[in-house]
Design goal:
Elements (H helix, E strand, L loop, with lengths): L2 E14 L2 E14 L3 E5 L6 H8 L7 E6 L2 E2 L7 H8 E4 L11 H11 L4 H14 L16 H12 L6 E5 L7 H16 L4 E6 L10 E6 L2 E5 L2
Parallel strand pairs: 3-8, 3-9, 6-7, 7-8
Antiparallel strand pairs: 1-2, 1-4, 4-5, 9-10
Helix pairs in contact: 3-4, 3-5, 4-5, 5-6
Length: 227
């Protein structure tokens, strides 16, 4: 499989009242198209910070993050274009716009990159149907939806601009076990059937069942584990 993501000696520290904390400490790893990579660790281990670095929501203090053969840490990288078109995010707390419908939440990323309105609606409807959100539910405001429905909408939104890299931060953290299992199966299908590179960070050991590759993160350091 082709490497989609390569992280090389990445470090990120934050200043706190108690002093400087190194959240990501010299981390190196790879993830590939068509595969699911799971990063397992407790709260505060640095795994979410690492995911945000890959998604360019944070900038590293040192190291390289190479996606599609391009180091996204270089000053000349167009990070807005990268976030809007090349990477899709799935968050624990969904991060949907609650005043908008499911359809509107999914069309919004396409609107930001200039996709024609008719194409936005067609693609959004197809993605939502694939996630099991059909008919009138597509026109429902997301603040009226269940947690499982919200996460399915969030996955559809992450796919709106057809990114090759999907970053999922605790995607089952607010779901019951049965609904969480369905969400994991959807993410696995995106890797296996669609050829996406899926990276999941989680504290849930059960998600290891979905992993092609897995790492454990503790105190900012990363090590590979068998799956």
């Amino acid at each position: 499989m082709q490497d989609m993501l390569e992280i090389k000696d990445v470090t990120k520290a934050f200043k706190t009242r108690a002093g400087e904390v190194t959240a990501v400490d010299g981390v190196s790893m790879r993830a590939r198209k068509g595969e699911v990579t799971v990063i397992l660790g407790p709260s505060g281990s640095g795994k979410t910070t690492l995911l945000y670095l890959v998604g360019s929501l944070e900038r590293p203090d040192a190291g390289e993050i190479v996606v599609f053969g391009e180091d996204i840490c270089r000053p000349e990288t167009d990070l807005v274009q990268y976030r809007r078109g090349r990477v899709g995010f799935v968050f624990q707390f969904f991060n949907l716009l609650s005043a908008l419908t499911a359809m509107e939440n999914v069309t919004l990323p396409m609107d930001l990159v200039g996709v024609p309105a008719d194409e936005q609606r067609r693609r959004a409807s197809e993605l939502l149907e694939r996630m099991g959100i059909e008919g009138r539910v597509q026109r429902m405001r997301t603040n009226k939806m269940s947690g499982g429905e919200k996460q399915r909408v969030a996955i559809a939104r992450a796919l709106a601009n057809d990114p090759d890299l999907i970053l999922a931060d605790e995607p089952t953290g607010n779901l019951d076990s049965a609904t969480g299992a369905v969400v994991v199966d959807i993410l696995v299908e995106l890797a296996r059937r669609d050829g996406k590179c899926v990276v999941i960070v989680t504290h849930d050991e059960g998600i290891l069942r979905a992993a092609d590759w897995a790492y454990r993160m503790e105190d900012g350091k990363l090590r590979g584990i068998e799956v």
